[in-house]
Each structure stands twice: as structure tokens, then as C-alpha cells.
Protein 1
Amino acid sequence: MLLINSLFLVNLFMKKILIIGGGAMGSAFSVPCIDNNNKVFITEPYSQRFIKNLSSKNIFHSGLKINLSKKLIFKKYAKELFFEKYDLIVIALSLSGINFVSKELKKYKVKSPVLVLTKGLKYEKKNKKITTISQTLLKNIPKLNVSVLKGPCLAKELARKNQTSVIIANKNIKIAKLLGKMISTKYYLIEYSKDVIGVEICSAIKNIYSMIIGSGLSLNKSSSLFQKSLLEMKYITRQLKGKEETVLSLAGVGDLYVSAAGGRNSKMGNYLGQGFTFKSAKKKFMANDTVEGEQLVREIAPFILKKFNSKKIPLMFRMIRAILKNKKFSI
Ligand SMILES: NC(=O)c1ccc[n+]([C@@H]2O[C@H](COP(=O)([O-])OP(=O)(O)OC[C@H]3O[C@@H](n4cnc5c(N)ncnc54)[C@H](O)[C@@H]3O)[C@@H](O)[C@H]2O)c1
């Protein structure tokens, strides 16, 4: 009887979480969710490689190089998935998957709260505007309860339960805190913000600034680029209607540090600093790597070049020129 009662209690507090996106980040995110006693489902709509990983017996993830918990439940991506009610749906796809998932959530009239891990911005050609991911989702589904989670988090480290601090933003801080309670653990620490736009802008543009910092080639030069990058990030965040102080949060300077210290963006920046053009560096050294900073440059350049003053954000303008015109990057 006692056992039945305690099982009932566990189930009562156990939340149902669906993670859409079985790449490195979506899969790593399942680790604290499971440790916090949630029932965690994961689905993969796009990559055969991740489907194979997640449906294998040992749940070995080829990106994380780790066996995931047997408690993680893999679900084939299908419309039936959305017939169930979840306490939380997590979006962990790359930026290129956002339009797809936005249409799907609308089609299946999803009412569960949504938490976005994806980092990036979109340029709306029609309205000539830069939009964040939460704005893109809300435009499609105005009543969606959407929060964003960003910050310095290498998926491989989180999957190995290294201490990681991130920030959840929602205009309604109570909702952000409820989500935080659902997913935080001793090693996954959560901070909160109401500045959804600022958090999204910072977490996206840090990919471009980590390329710029990576081009420094020496710690002295990179440190000075780091300081100048922060000033430009403050300016851009303010202009795009985020809060300047968010640049000093985990989503801004926190994430900039981890990306500049290591990672694909700063690696590309390093080649640019050595005098390679973007195309030659990509072909020669990083042919199979996604460089998120480059993708973001291409996405937002039409807006930045038109609406911003090059004297206010000279580093950004030089990086845009280097990538779009395939010119050497010099500072
Ligand atoms: N919020 C955080 O703490 C945090 C930390 C690290 C990374 N991220 C972000 O998470 C996102 C995913 O990163 P990752 O390291 O898991 O990348 P990954 O390459 O390992 O996985 C990418 C995921 O997106 C899917 N995808 C790719 N192209 C798609 C398309 N055209 N349509 C639909 N789905 C598509 C893949 O199938 C896979 O599920 C990125 O935006 C990254 O910046 C967030």
C-alpha cells in the first residue's frame, strides 16, 4: 500500500517533457531533465544519424560520444506525438528547423508551454525586419506560451554533468521560474530574465563576435577585441529593443567567453586572422563544420548594412564584408 502511494506521488510530481531535436544539445538537455525525475521523450524530425543513435539499444549518441540514460524515451517523429499533452515542449533544432517546427506546432494546435534552446535570428525580407525565434513562433501562433533558454553551455559538458549555468527568459518571470524548477539540478543552475528579446539577440550575435575575437591570434589582441565586442553587442542589443544590461548576463558575456575560448566560430576566426579568406578556410580546414556565426552574418547583413552606422559597430561591418565579399579580414 505504502509503495503504491509513493508511486502515485512520484507520478503526480513527474512532469512530461518532449524534446524536439536529437542533436547534441537536445540530447544533452535530456540529462538534467531525467535527473530531475521527469518523464522525458525525445524525437528527431530530420537527421537519420540521430534517429539511428537515439533508437539504438545502448542509446549511444555519436555527437556527444556518450550513452544516454535508458530512461530516455525515443519517439518516432509523427503527428500522433502532438496528440499527447506535455508539461513542456523543448525545441532544440538548428535555426534552419525553426520555420518547420513553427508550422507543425500551429498545425497540431499545440497548447503546451514551449522552451526554445535554438540560438539565432531571422531576417524577414518582406517587412525588412530582424526577428528573434520567439517572435517568429509567436507570429505564427500568437497564444503560444514561449520561453527561451540560453547561455554558455557546451552540450558535451552538460551531458557529462559538468556544472553549467544558463538563463531562462520569459516576460512573466513566474513562468520562467516554474520551468527552472522543472529542469534544474545540482549541476544545471538556472538564472532568470524578463528580457526575452535581449537574451535572444545576445545569444545569437555572440557567434559573430567569437569569430572576431578568434581572429586576434594572441591573448593581448583577443582581449582588446573582447572588450570592443562587448561595446558593440551593447549597442546592437539596445538598437534591436533588448536591454543593454543583458549583455552582461549569461546569454551575453557568459556565452561569448565559452564561444571565444573554443568552438567552431573562434576556430574560423583564427583562420581569418591568419589571412585566409572565409571560403578558402572553410574548404581547407572546416569543410564539414557548420559555422553558426557565418550563417548569422548572411542572414542579418542586409538589415545591419542598411540600418546601422558602420562607425558604431566597425568590427561587425568588417566581418560582414569579409564573409559576404570573401575579402581578407583585417583589424
Ligand atoms: N540554449 C543552449 O544552452 C544551447 C547550447 C548549445 C547549443 N544551442 C543551440 O542548439 C541548436 C542545436 O545545436 P546542436 O549542437 O544540437 O546541433 P546539432 O547539429 O547537433 O543538431 C541540430 C539539430 O537540428 C536538426 N536540424 C538541422 N537542420 C534541420 C532542418 N533543416 N530542419 C529541421 N531540423 C533540422 C538536426 O536534425 C538536429 O536535431 C543550435 O541553435 C545551437 O546554437 C543551445
Protein 2
Amino acid sequence: MRISMWTAGLAGMALLGACDNAQIRVATPDATRVVAATDIEAGRYLVQITGCNDCHTPRGAPGSPPVPEADSLRGTGVGFYGPWGTTYAANLRLTTANLTEDAWVDMLSTRDARPIMPWASVRAMDDADKRAIYRYIRSLPGEPGEAVPDGLPPGQMPTTPYEDLNIKMPAGAPPPR
Ligand code: HEC
């Protein structure tokens, strides 16, 4: 009898453990998104790991110190020149200053513009991540700054500095794949 009470007790504890686990599973968010202490921290983390600064913050000359975070994401006047024409990574401080958070989410969810902006990657983000990025950019100190130059159609040479992203074919090279 004693043994069976023990057994019952253990079974009960196991059941409680199972309930706890079930509760933890229920608490897991349905969507895949970044969770941090604040949305601004989540946005900072997302911007760091997805490389928005690689294009939207000037890189300067090789070896020059990185742009401080407070001055980041104001875009760059160095064009990306390729078969699509020339595009300039926008000043995201200005974009977010001129858009509501909902309009920003809409832009990141629907736009499919020219390279080399990774639109497919931002479209795939959960809306909560898009909102976190918006809140992070809006939290950066200082004035939004100036707009970047307008993009150019294919074939037109830029008058600003630019990176040439056209494929070059050295003599005898196999076709690109
Ligand atoms: C590889 C370079 C590159 C990276 C990385 C990149 N962008 Fe861009 N982005 C661009 C370029 C170039 C444009 C301009 C495209 C055009 O003119 O069609 C642009 C445009 C945009 C625009 C449109 C702004 C406007 O006002 O029209 C948004 C919003 C944007 N990027 C957000 C982001 C975010 C958020 C990240 C990080 C998740 C990011 N970008 C990463 C290159 C990049």
C-alpha cells in the first residue's frame, strides 16, 4: 500500500511536470521573431546581424574607423552601378522620420525595387521585427540628415563615386554560373 502511494505520488509529480512543459510550450510565440528586453534592443540586434549598415552607412576608406552608431544609417552617396543602373542606399533616418511605423512595415513588406537592396530578406521578416527596426532607427540621436542622390537608369554614368558591380569576363574565363 505504501509503495503504491509512493507510486501514485511520483505519477502525480510526473503529471505536474508534463503540465509545466505544456504551459511553456503554450507561452512560445507563434511567429519566428527576435525577442529582447525592449523593441529598440531587438532592432539594434537585427540591424547588426542583417548588415543594414554595410550599405546604408558609409564605409570610408579601407582601414578607417567605423562610423559611430549615433551617426549610422544616414545613407551613402557612393552609387551601386550595375546592369540595373545606379542605386544609392537610402538615408534610413530620413525614411523613418517621414513614414509612420505602419507605412514602414508596408514598405518593407511590399516593395521589390532595384538591387542591391536585399528586398526579399526584409520582406521575409516578421512584422514585429520590422517594427523593432523602425523603433531602433527612430531612437538614434541627432538630425535625420540629407537625402542620398537619385538613382540613375541603366547605361547612364554616375557623376558621384560608385562601385562597379558589372560582371567582368577575363580572357578565357568560363561563362558565369
Ligand atoms: C547590399 C546593400 C544593402 C543592404 C545590406 C541593405 N540595403 Fe536597404 N537599400 C540598398 C539600396 C541600394 C537601396 C536603394 C534601392 C533603390 O533605389 O531601388 C536601398 C533602399 C532601402 C529602403 C528604401 C528607402 C526609401 O526611402 O526609399 C529601405 C527601407 C531599406 N533599404 C531598408 C534596409 C534595411 C532595414 C536593411 C537591413 C535589414 C537594408 N536596407 C540593407 C542597399 C542595401
